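Bench log, entry 3. Co-assembly request; chain sequences pasted below exactly as received.
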Amino acid sequence: MKEIYLDNNATTRVDDAVFEEMRPYFTEMYGNPSSMHFFGGQVQKKVDEARARVAALLGAQPEEIIFTACGTESDNTAIRSALEAFPTRRHVITSRVEHPAVLTLCRNLTKHGVRVTELNVDSAGRLDLDELKRAIDDDTAIVSIMHANNETGVVFPIEEIAGIVKERGVLFHTDAVQSVGKIPLNMAKSRIDMLSLSGHKLHAPKGIGALYLRKGTPFRPFLVGGHQERNRRAGTEATSSIIALGKACQVAGEFLHDENTRVKGLCDRLERELMAIIPAARINGGGAERLPNTVSIAFEFVEGEAILLLLSEKGICASSGSACTSGSLEPSHVLRAMGVPFTCAHGSIRFSLSRFTTDAEVDAVIRELPPIIQRLREISPFGRELLKK
Amino acid sequence: MWDYTDKVKEHFLNPRNVGDIPEADAIGEVGSLACGDALKLFLKLDDKKERIVDAKFQTFGCGSAIASSSALTEMIKGKTLDEALAVTNKEIADFLGGLPEEKMHCSVMGQEALEVAIAKYRGGPVPTHGHGHDHEQEGEIVCKCFGLTDGFLKKVIEQNRLHTAEQVTHFTKAGGACGGCIPRIKELIAEVLGEAQAAPPKRPEKLTNLRKMQLIQEVLENEIRPQLWTDGGDLELIDIAGPTVQIAFRKACAGCASSGFTAKFVEQKLRDMVSDDIVVEEVEG
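Structure output for the full assembly:
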């Protein structure tokens, strides 16, 4: 069975061009870029090129890019760095809907004397910027707010947020893991201090990420013990992965238009047609600005894991904010923060598309999902009540 | 992805006995939309009102909840009410070739619905384990998120021989949301284990070899291992040869500096409760 992969916010396929670009750096040009011989030096040149390519996608300077192992490391580095660089400030502001890479770190920091404010969101997943303004005080070391939400695709107005935060002289970090390559960014015209991105969300391999660090921003490294990345991230460079990330960023730049036209069109059609066919459904974050590739729909009276298993039988790979898929017993923290009604909080399904998604694949979901929801509602005691009406 | 057995998958993809019985003799409902799973069970009895001739279900929940409900209805058809009441959640899980531990609460939900249905039919008190927000509950509500009482939790702890709070969460969902009741769950585990230890089986006068081996196993299972669990340890029975009982230590007990003392403790316990001539030998295994 050929898979229909609509779970690109979880991870993406490595682009063929990206894989070809990285391949020689495993077995042929495996030198260490720090070495004082031609064999390492030729790799150094490719690493520099990759850095420039990542910077170009972000509208940044190459020296503002620090390669890391993943988005999670970038997030951890940014927040810990701010707290170390401003040792007298013990307050962090974030939101209730952040990725665990930020939220769990912040909650752990509270055990070490750090005060954390988690900003609320409304039912569409939007922030109240007045709440942010009220939360910032002289003790605030950093504000970390994601660019786009991984579960709902809701996009936060990070430039506006950066303006508010910088006005008060506080560092601003954004986790842009889900938005890089989907939404144009231009650091040259932005006030964002730090930005996290992850390779495997934009068709590079797993195990590579980057942290954008604006020139002049106070910084303390997370990993020490080597001069790499200008003393900002120790450890021998993951050369092949860095080269892959560079290529992936270059290709993502070329596909930005496609992402926001064709892919967005597919996503909109998927959402529109499913909502037209399936009763008692609601779009999570429906009233907010969202990523061009993500649609999250809550179906009343059915449970997400059951939907995913039946979709999987049809070769369709999607994701769910449901409790049962993760072994947790509550719906996702994002849906709870949005106050999604309990009648459908357990039945949310996320489809996340990519530039590899085709019309035929979207057609398949539109064909296969409605009978699955119908079938589960016939099994569900609450669903049967709905069907009687 | 969960590692479901083929039988779980098969019962999820082709659930038996979905629907309702218009003139059902007994109906049991547990769970709610807020809880994330719910089961409504219908039973039809024979003319003498003794034996279950038909069972149907409706389930809101994940794959293993639907499979557990399907398994339950298959298992109880043809049974008398008393026979059906004897079905444990473990038997439901076993029928399906096992469930991931995190999903054991699905099998517990099946057992609960059955108990409620039969209790309501017989007109006796309906079991008040909570699990639902629509009826009055007796006893102390331990888990406020899922509305679970101490009596229900203790029963599940005892029947399934649970010894960590995490297991209790997997089997009942208690403590799985806010986690505020986990300290109380640990107390309940200690209470249940304590009660089991307070009533040791009487030491028999004369033993056949077979009975002796059974007794050794029972004492290890019911008396000794629960005590080791409380310290994060465990042991496994490797062999019994005459009076020699070979054991291997596991988890925290394995490689523990005082495992020699633990072995002596095991030996003394077996001598007290089974036979004076028992020698415990620690082996690698």
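Chain A touches chain B through 28 residues (CB under 8 Å). Residues 239-277 of chain A form the longest helix (39 residues).
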